Amino acid sequence: MGTTRTNGSLYTSIENRIATVEFGHPASNSFAAELLARLADELKELSEKEEVSLIVLKSEGDRAFCAGASFDELVAVSNLEEGKAFFSGFANVINAMRTCKKLIVGRVQGKAVGGGVGLIAACDYAFAVEDASIRLSELTIGIGPFVIAPAVERKIGNSGLAELSLAPTEWKNAYWGKEKGLFAKVFENSKEMDEEMDLFTTKLASYNPQALEDMKSILWEGTGHWDSLLSERAELSGKLVLSDFTKQALDKFKK
User: Fold this and answer.
1) Is the pTM of this model over 0.85?
2) What are phi and psi of 113, to 5 degrees?
């Protein structure tokens, strides 16, 4: 059973040099701003822990992996400052994943939308089940996946990013994600995935910690400008969410 906390939950356990970070939210494991901030801080802290060689990122339950940022908080944005702050949530998490000294392995047990796809893309290696379909739906409400686009494009290329973002109502299945490079492996069910993940992460965590750290740096070469880039993208998104088009689109979802 998943968390019932309105701001979500975040738990970390460390065993055999593997830190498992599990997030959850009653709204399909979406992220409230507070939960995004907690995740970014947790990754920064784990980055400096000598007893950790590897991080596993997962979400609660057996259904959705992550529905992106909190829709309720998006609807509540009323000015540019709030808009930039809202979109900076995922920007800060992606940058924390990028600069983390530890390799991050994602466990994707279900569908991912918007920022959830960005999280997967920012993992260094990702396992998924067949039900792990993905979608970037931002254009349907008058914004775009601008903040997460650099991470997604880095993994699946510009053409893959175009396929996802320009068809915002279409789901791409897990095998599409594997073909494009978002997922390393896809399994029929969670049981098979977890068995393979346990073998993979145990072996990976047994390697030279310095070699793993150096490999992480090499994998992310050329992204040193992302602090400023993602901040600029957050501001761009913050402006668009205040547009008449987006306000009208969001009015349909207000409770």
Assistant:
1) yes
2) -130, 145
